[in-house]
Amino acid sequence: MFCTTLLRIIGLAALALVVWSVAARPSGAHGPKAVYRVKAYDTLWTIAQTHYGGDVRNAIWQIEHVNHLTGTEISPGETLVLP
After folding, report:
1. What's the number of CA atoms in the CB half-sphere (13 Å) around residue 16?
2. 1 domain residue, yes or no
3. Which of 51, 53, 63, 64 is positioned for an S-S bond with 69, CB 3.0–4.6 A?
4. Per-residue pLDDT tens for 19-36?
5. Model pLDDT, residue 66
């Protein structure tokens, strides 16, 4: 009798785990990333200043890091992901 009850509990736990794993969805906590098309006379400083609060230098570093830039040079028409 104890064995049967234990097997039922294990079976229900396994079923709950399967249902949870199928129904689980990403939370979207980070939200969608914004894409920005560079305009004439834009610099990383002006883009960071416009789209972020706080320390502009940190925002520039984040933009460079996410877009795999090796420097601060950007060209009009280039698209940047803004984290």
Report:
1. 6
2. no
3. 64
4. 777 776 665 556 677 899
5. 92
